């Protein structure tokens, strides 16, 4: 059975490192890559009907932009390198969504880049890598 590596990709330097790491291993093991872009979204907002409609419109635009501007160029590049690649864009809490996607797509490993956030923000909100290391149901590789 072929392996699937789920790589969190947002175009940042950290995600580029995770992608490079995952692509090298996918070449070696003939694994399939699933590139996931997760847009942060809080469901705990109190909005009017007009604001909900505007928010839905913005979400649709953001998903389209993420697919065409962030993921598609990378997908094409990886396919040209001979890799099997699929992409997905979702909304929500990044670590939770990545965990759910790993289950949904039967990923055998999650690969994320470490951004190196420190200080108050990291203490208050935690990090995606730290949360995945504690909660993921499949092995999680954190690329420094």
UniProtKB/TrEMBL annotation:
What domain of life does the native source organism fall in? Bacteria
Which Pfam family, any one, appears in the UniProt record?
Usp
Q: Which SUPFAM superfamilies match?
A: Adenine nucleotide alpha hydrolases-like (SSF52402)
Where is each UspA domain found?
3-144
Q: Which family does it belong to?
A: Belongs to the universal stress protein A family.
Its name, as the record gives it, is: Nucleotide-binding universal stress UspA family protein
Q: Which organism does this record belong to?
A: Roseinatronobacter monicus
């Amino acid at each position: 059975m072929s392996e699937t590596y789920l790589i969190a990709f947002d175009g940042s330097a950290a995600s580029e490192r995770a992608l490079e790491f995952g692509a090298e291993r996918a070449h070696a093991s003939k694994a399939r890559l699933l590139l996931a872009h997760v847009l942060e979204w809080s469901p705990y907002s109190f909005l009017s009907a007009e604001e909900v409609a505007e928010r839905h419109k913005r979400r649709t635009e953001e998903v389209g932009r993420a697919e065409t501007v962030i993921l598609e160029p990378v997908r094409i590049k990886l396919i040209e390198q001979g890799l099997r690649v699929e992409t997905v864009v979702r909304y929500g809490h990044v670590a939770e969504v990545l965990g759910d996607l790993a289950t949904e797509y039967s990923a055998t490993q999650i690969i994320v880049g470490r951004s190196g956030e420190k200080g108050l923000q990291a203490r208050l909100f935690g990090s995606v890598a730290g949360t995945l290391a504690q909660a993921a149901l499949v092995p999680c590789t954190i690329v420094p």
